[in-house]
Amino acid sequence: MKYSFIIPVFNRPEEVDELLKSLTAQTVKDFEVIIVEDGSTRTCKSVCEGYSGALDIQYFMKKNSGPGQSRNYGAEHSKGEYLIVLDSDVVLPEGYLAAVDAELAKTGADAFGGPDRAHDSFTDTQKAISYSMTSFFTTGGIRGGKKKLDKFYPRSYNMGIRRSVYLKLGGFSKMRFGEDIDFSIRIFKAGCNCRLFPDAWVWHKRRTDFRKFYRQVFNSGIARINLYKKYPESLKIVHMLPTVFTVGVTALVLTSAVGRVLMEYDSIDKWYWLCAGPWLPILLYCLLILIDSSISNRSFKVGLLSIPASFIQLFGYGCGFITAWWKRCVLKHDEFHAFDKNFYK
């Protein structure tokens, strides 16, 4: 067997149903599906049983240990030459596996990954969040486009690896967040060939509201410092851009506040531009996001929602990065992450 899809699941039976349905439509059929239920209270066992006649599918239930360890559990029960790791909230176009097949036939790879897109059926908020995570203007586009500023590091929502390499490297680490980047770094350190397959894209739902989205990106910022402590060379300038944005916007808002206070005690004309001027670059950035997202999503409403989504993406990551830098690099604390009790709520 050539491919094994490994999908960890936590309380998402409806989304698993959508994913499995998309797998039945693949034009390439040489694959198995391994679902690993990671301690869910709302299981997808009955959903998986409904596809037993259409797919070569295995279902496993285990205690909660996080997505990385669940993927390792699935890998232990797989038979494919290549393991393809997916998040449970993705849907595949019917040509996904054909695109992977074509890329591997053209030029082999030890590991690979592809970009993600927003489906027309997604809510406007999901489309806005997807924009903020994939747009060049929020640094997201640097991760998943055809042009890379650095090496391509596959992410766990759409990641493939040769089975022998997976076993050699021991699979995913016990990191709760950033475990996919950790794995990608180890793939490169082992001298393996890792490629972007631009045509092997997926529809990725990501978070469904801004609160959940903030928790996700805050932990991503923390994970970047945790990764830096393990691999100092992995920290690049692009990883610090959200932090620069966070500090810069905060400084502009505080400057404006100082100007407003001075206007109360001195000539209004004298301090007007100190109060109003700092908002100009912020408003211009909002206008840029509004125009670009409205055009790319063909929706003015999604364009409007992309403004708070972009600020949450940058501020959440930046705040997580700063918090982790202070705790780990200054106070010398051990590895940590946030929102343990309600990350998935």
From TrEMBL:
<feature type="transmembrane region" description="Helical">
    <location>
        <begin position="303"/>
        <end position="326"/>
    </location>
</feature>
<protein>
    <submittedName>
        <fullName>Glycosyl transferase family 2</fullName>
    </submittedName>
</protein>
<feature type="transmembrane region" description="Helical">
    <location>
        <begin position="237"/>
        <end position="259"/>
    </location>
</feature>
<dbReference type="GO" id="GO:0016740">
    <property type="term" value="F:transferase activity"/>
</dbReference>
<keyword id="KW-0808">Transferase</keyword>
<dbReference type="InterPro" id="IPR029044">
    <property type="entry name" value="Nucleotide-diphossugar_trans"/>
</dbReference>
<dbReference type="InterPro" id="IPR050834">
    <property type="entry name" value="Glycosyltransf_2"/>
</dbReference>
<feature type="domain" description="Glycosyltransferase 2-like">
    <location>
        <begin position="4"/>
        <end position="167"/>
    </location>
</feature>
<dbReference type="Pfam" id="PF00535">
    <property type="entry name" value="Glycos_transf_2"/>
</dbReference>
<keyword id="KW-0472">Membrane</keyword>
<dbReference type="InterPro" id="IPR001173">
    <property type="entry name" value="Glyco_trans_2-like"/>
</dbReference>
<keyword id="KW-0812">Transmembrane</keyword>
<feature type="transmembrane region" description="Helical">
    <location>
        <begin position="271"/>
        <end position="291"/>
    </location>
</feature>
<keyword id="KW-1133">Transmembrane helix</keyword>
